[in-house]
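Deadline looming. Please check this record:
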Amino acid sequence: MQQVKIAYAQNTITRSSQGLVQELAFMVEVDNLAYDKQVEIHWAGEDEHWHADTATYQLTRADGRELWLAKVQCPLTPQHNLPGTIRFAVRYETMGRIFWDSNHGHNYSLDADCGIVVYSRVPLLHCFHDPVLQGGKVRLPIQTAVRADLEATAVRIHWSTDHWKTKRVSRCLRRANYWHAACGSAARNPNRYGWEIWAGRIPVRQAYRVEYYLEAETPKGLVRDDALGQNYQSRRSSLRIMTLNLHCNQEKDQAAKFKQIAHVIEQLDVDVVCFQEVAEDWNDGRGDWATNTARTINGHLPQPYHLFADYSHLGFEKYREGLAILSRHEFTSTDSGYVSESEDIYDIHARRVLMAQIHVPYFGPVNVYSAHLSWVEDGFEEQFERLRSWVNRQHTEEVIASVVCGDFNIAADSAAYSGIVRTGDLQDQYLRATRPDLFERVFGKAKQNSMRTLNGDGRIDYIWLKTDSELRALSARELFTPTAYGRVSDHPGYLVEFERC
């Protein structure tokens, strides 16, 4: 199989009151040979001037191949004509190697204003599948390219918003004026390349997720596009939760590191952040909110988050040392309490935990905890048991998930970690997302828990999920290391991305 291949391309000329714009779109299939890669479309119009436009990642198919999309808009201006008919090829670079799909050296040709051409050997294909239900979208438009020689008499969308407990069917229509109605284009439907567009929509309303496949009725029987057996899926945005111990103002270049943390929160589109070792000037125990480090980081965000903070004890002889939760979404309730025997603010083992309930759009109420527990010899087990009891009490029927984040001061290959596993209440989401095979050995029904499986895993910072929560970890990353955004503390940070089950 080719390492890179054009799947389909579109060439249309949009006509509106603002003038003429030629729009080009290219969907490319690539083998996932490495994480770092660059996919480009090299194309030239009738002026023979070659351009290189970068494609962006869209999704991974059931066969492991990735889809990358490039879009180009070329307005007609007094200085520039429209490209017209174009020639193009695809360039894929990864691991120091370069691969091309150039139609065996002849390049591809695509007529001006011709609509969509599918290069994959399929009878019908869902084009420009959007895996994310953007914003408050309540209808999902579906565009299906069908080979005209199939003589399709009907095209239907089979869909579900509840994991196929119930199934619905919506029909697609083929209209000769499809392109004119869609964008003012004069493209024919079907076009000279033998492809016709059938269009429909799914009324997703307020659903979090919709799964679907397409089916065409032809004189020779039914033809289906079900995304290589996994069905298509579009869902609302995911929920991204990050945890980081800030090291209580002990870093060199502290101000620059606070700005870097805010930059990463913005760049990675993090929804909720749990901080530990948040520092605030002691000021005879009264504190000084203006110096609170979580507040400082929040102030560097282009649009500040909702912030809840509290302190536990005197840290480094000069700070109120505590915790904070930042959230893009509003808090519906907050709470703070000691899980240690000691509540003496002059005792380093006086440990407080913060809790915030957040109503996440399209998810529901999520309980989030920020914790910094003592070492095993200094009260970890008692503190963890109080925290676990608190999480269980607050995890009521209306709560869809409870997420516990923070610095637990126990290594993943320790007996204390094994004790958490044995409770059956909390599961390690970084492990689940990055090592699902190992996660299953540790947390699975077989209970094959052996510390040997986690040898060398020295993490002490975690994002735990209560076992019966309605979230699923999609991915996870370790942050703020020399190779990932730079060191900002004596701890790395961890980010887990969740979807609703």
About this structure: The chain has two domains: 4-235, 239-500. The chain has seven helices and 30 strands. The first strand starts at residue 4 and ends at 16.
